[in-house]
Each structure stands twice: as C-alpha cells, then as structure tokens.
Amino acid sequence: LVFKPSAVLIIFCFANLKRVTKELLVALVISKQLENIDWASVMLSLYTAICLAVYFDPIGTTIIQTDVFDSCKWKCLLFAQLWPGSFCMTLPEHDCRIPDHVEGWTIHGLWPSGRKSCNNSWHLTHEDIDDLQVNLFLHWPSLTNTNAFKFWGNEWRKHGTCAACADSMSCPHKYFSLALQLWKQFTINEAFIAAGITPSCDNSYKLEHFYSALTDMGTHVDFQCCTIKERQVLMQIKIPLSKDLSIGCNHTEEHFSNQYYHPCTNKAEIYFYPFTDHPHNPCP
C-alpha cells in the first residue's frame, strides 16, 4: 500500500529535518567515539528521511510495489523430493554424506516457479522453526557438508521469501510446516513399493512405470535423472501444486537447468539405485 502521510506528519518531518540532520552529521564525524552518539537522533533522522522520501518520491514507492508484486507473480509451487542414493553420485566424495537415519526420499525444497531470492534481508532464525527442527532433520536433511540450519536458511532466502506472499507460507514456520506436511501427503516411498518399483543395480524401468506409480500426484509430475556411466538414473521428483495447494499445475514456463541432472526421457531405461555403505558408488 502507498503510504499517504497526514499534513501534521509532513510538518513534523520538515520541522525536525534540519536539527536531526545536523546531529546525524556530527555523530558521523565523531564516530570513533561511539559513546557520544545520540542514537535517538540518528534513528529519528532516518525516520524523517523515510517519510519525506515516501511522500515526495512516488516513483520510488511504485518501484518497491512493483518488486513485491513481481515476486508474487508465480503460478506454480514445486515440491521437490530427492533420492540421496543418486544425489551423492554426482558430487565429489568429500562433499556428500547420507545421514544414518535416512532411508528413502527426502525433501529437497518447496519452490515457487520462476522466482528466487525475493527478500535477501529476511533471514531465518532458530526461533522461527524451533519446534520443527527434529522433523526437519529427519525429512529435510542436508546431504552435503553444509550445516543443516544453514541449508534451511538458504532455502528460505532463495525460495521461502518468494512463497511468503501466499497466506499458507507467510512466515518461515508456515513455510517449513507446509513442506513437512507435503512430505507426509506425497509418500513416494510407499507409492513405489506398491507399484513394484524397488532400488536395484540391475533392474531398470520405463518412464511410464514411474508415472503410473504416482498418478495420484497429478499429471505434471517431473522426473529428473542424472547420467552415470551412460545410464539414466532417477534422482529427483518435483510435484507441482497451484498457489492454493491443489494438485497439478502446468509449469511449462519454467526452464529447468542443472549441471548434474535433467528431465528423464523415455528414450532409455531408467535405473533406481539402492542405498549402500558406499553412497558415491552404490553399483560398482
């Protein structure tokens, strides 16, 4: 919303601008003696500058509004789950690890399509997700040497801040709670077992087999593979949701690119490798 200050507020801004600006300049000059700074005046000067800028610079305000509006333009929400057994094969051995408790598909992210890093100043804090961290460690672990909380913080900064314009994800707690809820709703492990798809170094599957296993998850599910020793290996599955969280959303406007994996194709059989004690080479 465009802020329209009252006449009284404008008079207040002008009346104080000269005095507080002078005090701010003096404070900056003697910045080496921090105890002498009148921080109340510093804050008041910043407030004065803001109210003047908002009132006399509608163009700047419009730019801010446009940025916020653009960040909310996304159409689809992509819930990505990762198969750790394949993921580690694409990274140097010292850069990847699979926690002992991980036995199946894990959360990779919850991503508004086509939008990233909408508010780099909105940082995740431990207090934001204090009651969620146990479940996040279980179902949204870091598979690299990156600290788990740092990993979640990066996901919030890159993707959560863009999702926050939706009521269901308007703060970090809602965003991460929703991801955990979706993990319970979209149980890929169980769906694959029911369809007879099990990890193997020798058996392969057609792409249609995977689609059939996840028919309950909509018609636009993305299966993403990596190429290892000339084999197409399943790595990630992205389930598209509409902004209202209904299943299925055509996100063809998003261009996928990654140096490690790509959309699986039906031109070759697809392998689904198991977890082993050697995650970087499960099928020597």
Summarize the structure.
With 284 residues, the protein is α+β, with helices and mostly antiparallel strands. The protein is built from nine helices and seven strands, in the order H-H-H-E-H-E-H-H-H-H-E-H-E-E-E-E.
Blueprint (SSEs and pairs):
Layout: H1 7-29, H2 39-56, H3 58-71, E1 76-82, H4 84-87, E2 106-112, H5 133-139, H6 148-163, H7 172-185, H8 188-194, E3 204-205, H9 207-213, E4 222-228, E5 231-242, E6 261-263, E7 270-271
Parallel strand pairs: 5-7
Antiparallel strand pairs: 1-2, 1-5, 3-7, 4-5, 4-6
How many helical stretches? 9
Rg, nearest Å: 25 Å
Principal-axis shape equals globular
Q: Into which percent range does the helicity of residues fall? A: 25-40%
Secondary structure class reads: alpha+beta
**How would a crystallographer describe the biggest sheet?**
7 strands, mixed
* Poorly predicted segments: 1-37, 49-69
Oligomeric status: single chain
Distance between the termini: 60 Å
SSE succession: HHHEHEHHHHEHEEEE
> What average pLDDT do the residues reach?
79
The total strand number stands at 7
Content of β-strand: 5-15%
Protein traits:
alpha+beta; globular; 7-stranded mixed β-sheet; 284 residues; 9 helices; disordered N terminus
Could you please describe the fold and organization of this structure?
This protein is an alpha+beta fold and 284 residues long. Helix content is 39%, strand content 14%. The chain contains nine helices and seven strands, in the order H-H-H-E-H-E-H-H-H-H-E-H-E-E-E-E. The chain has helices at residues 7-29, 39-56, 58-71, 84-87, 133-139, 148-163, 172-185, 188-194, 207-213, and strands at 76-82, 106-112, 204-205, 222-228, 231-242, 261-263, 270-271. Strands 1, 2, 3, 4, 5, 6 and 7 form a seven-stranded mixed β-sheet that branches. Strand 4 and strand 5 form a beta hairpin. Helix 1 (7-29) packs across helix 2. The radius of gyration is 25 Å and the shape is globular.
